[in-house]
Amino acid sequence: MDSRIERLIARIRDAEDALAEEMDARRARFRYRVERGRVIFEKDVRRAHREARESLLSFLSRTRPLVVLSAPLIYGLIVPLVLLDIFVSLYHAVCFPIYGIKKVRRADYIAVDRHKLQYLNGLQKLNCVYCGYANGLIAYVREVAGRTERFWCPIKHATRLKDSHPHYPDFIEFGDAQGFRTRIDRLRAQRNAPDRDGR
Question: Is residue 15 part of a domain?
């Protein structure tokens, strides 16, 4: 890969790491810790959260009627999302070992924890469970698809993409026939390299 591109990718990854560190620092301000997957707030913070909770009736009274009427469209997506989850997980479990592609750790992408916040009412908690699952699932599917693309067709597109998965910068340039022939095997060999976080 071009050394200038490698330097730019390294700068992007450094910025991502700096952003993660800043997010960790901000979490400390809200006085909680995570122990064995459980979020633990300090006692006075939990009490303040319960006092800040808006009742379900108050919450619904402020909701526009069209928002309520659109709810079946939002929640109806759970069926295709669950089907996507089942089929992608099945593909991942069966095909990745056959291809020799490193498996994706699902828990790194799907986080369902916001429903534990005491300042949310029951409907808000349900919405947060749904959004955490849906957005995490899409991120998980994207990573499975990205690793698949890296194995089968690691060629950049001719057109510029708005956003791409993290494997894309390593792909071979569009139209580089010689590079494709010389780099395809090397890219496939790198498929089991540890992720940036060491997993």
Answer: no
Please name the amino acid found at residue 37: G
The angle that helices 78-99 and 65-76 make with each other, rounded to 10 degrees, is: 30
Choice between 27 and 78, residue whose per-residue pLDDT is larger: 78
Structure tokens, 80: 């295709």
Token representation of residue 134: 């849906």
Tell me the per-residue pLDDT of 84-135, one tens digit each, with 9 for 90 and over: 999 999 999 999 999 999 999 999 999 998 888 999 999 999 999 999 999 9
Residue 49 within a domain: no
Per-residue model confidence as pLDDT tens digits over 154-172: 999 999 888 888 888 888 8
DSSP 47-94: HHHHHHPPPHHHHHHTS-HHHHHHHHHHHHTHHHHHHHHHHHHHHHHH
* Phi and psi, residue 42, nearest 5°: -65, 150
Domain that holds residue 110: 71-192
Say how far apart CA 69 and CA 74 lie, in whole Å. 10
Total domains in the chain come to 1
* Residue 91: inside a domain: yes
Is residue 154 exposed (0-12), middle (13-18) or buried (19+ Cβ within 10 Å)? buried
Burial of 140 (0-12, 13-18, 19+ CB in 10 A): buried
